[in-house]
Amino acid sequence: MEDHNQDLEQQINIELSEEMAEGVYSNLAMIAHSNSEFILDFIRLMPGVPKAKVKARVILTPEHAKRLLGALKDNIRKFEDIHGPIHQSNDDGPSFNFPMSFGGPGGEA
């Protein structure tokens, strides 16, 4: 039984290239799903420009999507405990108007 617990506590070495470590900026996320996966498209939307580019796409299993949701909630709570509440702008006004369909299955962001 002890050997089994030690196996579960093994560490994973994660490699992060210099290019990947720079990251990409995204100010919009579109989420779609099928019966077997969640698709997260991270988009950079520039003011006054009618076209936006997907900068990264992440495809997750439903189980991993739920784990991501939990981890994000936990990190937002920790952030707000230190820095105070995150205030959301009113993004549903007339200046924030873009097509909600990118040709894939529907979802919400």
From TrEMBL:
Region of interest (Disordered), residue spans: 83-109
Designated name of the protein: DUF3467 domain-containing protein
Pfam family, one: DUF3467
